[in-house]
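User: My collaborator sent over this chain with a note saying "see what the structure looks like." That's all I know about it. Can you take a look?
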Amino acid sequence: MAATKITRMPDNLAAGSTFAHEYANEIKTVVNEHSDDIDLMNESISNVDNTSDLDKPVSTLQQAAIDALKEAVGLEPLADFPADGVIALDRPGGRGYNSKTINAALAISVASGSVEMGSAYGILVADGVNVPTLTGITLWDDTIFDNTAGVANHWAASVKNGVAYLSWHQLPA
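Assistant: Without extra context I'll predict from the sequence alone. Here is the result:
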């Protein structure tokens, strides 16, 4: 379909002049000539999928790439803090544990299979009574577990030169 050219209307055009009427007729002609195109465009717009990006599905190839990346850097969902207190330091990317309130004696130790630069992290909430003990783990920089009831003690542990270290950190309320 050939394009139709509409000449620009002069800025100083007086309303009701002959040229204004001709210009208006020219516009009507162009619209009429392209009405099928306009209808098709309106139909196409009504068929647009407005699904948000977050709600769009991930392709099989995309999911495979995401899974490979997560595996390469060691990401995985948070795990429940082990009832026996044995934490795994087997992933260089870190293993995260869900928050847990201490409500009994807890000895924290390192699982076998730890790897150099393996790490883990989580939060232990104090109950005001029990203080976790460390078995086979060196306390890093004399950090302390705050036993005030309700205090969230953030912890991080890692292996360096074959030695497991753990540090405690409390964030201000």
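A starting point for your reply to your collaborator: The helical segments are 18-33, 35-46, 60-73.
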